[in-house]
Design goal:
The protein has 231 residues and is an alpha/beta fold. It has a single domain, classed as P-loop containing nucleotide triphosphate hydrolases (Rossmann fold), CATH 3.40.50. The protein contains nine helices and ten strands. The strands form two sheets. Strands 6-7-8-3-9-10 form a six-stranded mixed β-sheet, sandwiched between helices. Strands 2-1-4-5 form a four-stranded antiparallel β-sheet, covered by helices on one side. A hairpin with a 2-residue loop joins strand 1 and strand 2. The protein binds adenosine-5'-triphosphate (ATP). Adenosine-5'-triphosphate (ATP) binds next to strand 2 and helix 1. The site of adenosine-5'-triphosphate has 11 residues, from strand 2 and helix 1.
């Protein structure tokens, strides 16, 4: 579904991604892992066109997104749940969800029913301001908002960060459902190993802006964990 080839990115003089390649096979959940500051968020923002890349390809079903504008990503079927959620605090839950409607076909510009079925709490809180929701509810809203465009590929940046354990479990179940039952391809940035193991089919480990190991989740060995994840 998505193949990133030889990506190089820098902030001014400081190079962050080095010849980085990753593969997200269709219908699978690929978990991007690595210690703080290795470039996970930079990678997702580069895929989304929010950061300029120097060289490299971002192939979505064979078509290169790298030279295209950020606005083209949703139309290409890429949904994004940014780190820190970025819910609009002074818009209601419903208004937050409506932001994606212009991407939907002209004759179907409504929030799909299944979204409120997946997140019943958002149906209950439709008219509340985004800023009044708890962290876990805001995270659910951020995921729901990304789903409004009917993405083929969903990128999630640390959706469990700062969220209480029962909601973490709920979010894990929803990601599994979207991926395994509904066939959505997922790229998940995640630091929590048990969560990564629960939802992921594959892993990709980053270290100082480079991809250092990847494979099936059950190939993520204790050695790799010690070398690239344990702090
Ligand atoms: N806007 C920026 N300007 C300059 N350097 C930046 C900027 N954003 C990130 N960096 C640097 O780029 C490197 C990668 O950061 P990035 O946020 O992508 O890492 P990360 O793996 O997502 O970390 P974390 O797990 O803490 O979110 C870090 O050294 C960081 O300091």
């Amino acid at each position: 579904m998505l193949t990133v080839n030889g990506l190089n990115q820098r902030y001014g003089e400081s190079q962050t991604l080095w010849d980085l390649s990753i593969e997200a096979p269709k219908g699978q959940c690929t978990v991007v892992m690595g210690r703080n500051g290795v470039g996970k968020t930079t990678l997702l923002q580069s895929i989304m066109g929010l950061l300029k890349v120097d060289t490299g390809q971002i192939l979505m079903e064979g078509s290169d997104l790298a030279p295209r504008r950020a606005e083209d990503r949703p139309r290409a079927g890429v949904g994004y749940v940014p780190q820190g959620r970025q819910v609009f605090p002074r818009l209601t839950v419903e208004e937050n969800l409506e932001i994606g409607l212009p991407i939907r076909p002209k004759n179907d510009r409504k929030i799909p029913d299944y979204i409120y079925e997946l997140f019943p709490v958002l149906a209950e809180m439709k008219r509340r301001f985004g800023g009044d929701l708890s962290g876990g509810q805001q995270q659910q809203l951020a995921i729901a908002r990304a789903l409004v465009i009917d993405p083929k590929l969903l990128l999630l940046d640390e959706p469990t960060e700062g969220i209480q354990p029962n909601i973490v479990q709920e979010i894990g179940d929803i990601i599994c459902k979207l991926n395994q039952e509904m066939g959505l391809t997922v790229i998940l940035v995640e630091q929590k190993l048990p969560f990564a193991r629960k939802v992921g089919d594959r892993f990709c480990l980053l270290d100082r802006g480079r991809s250092v190991a990847s494979g099936e989740m059950d190939e993520l060995s204790d050695d790799l964990i010690r070398q690239y994840l344990t702090v």
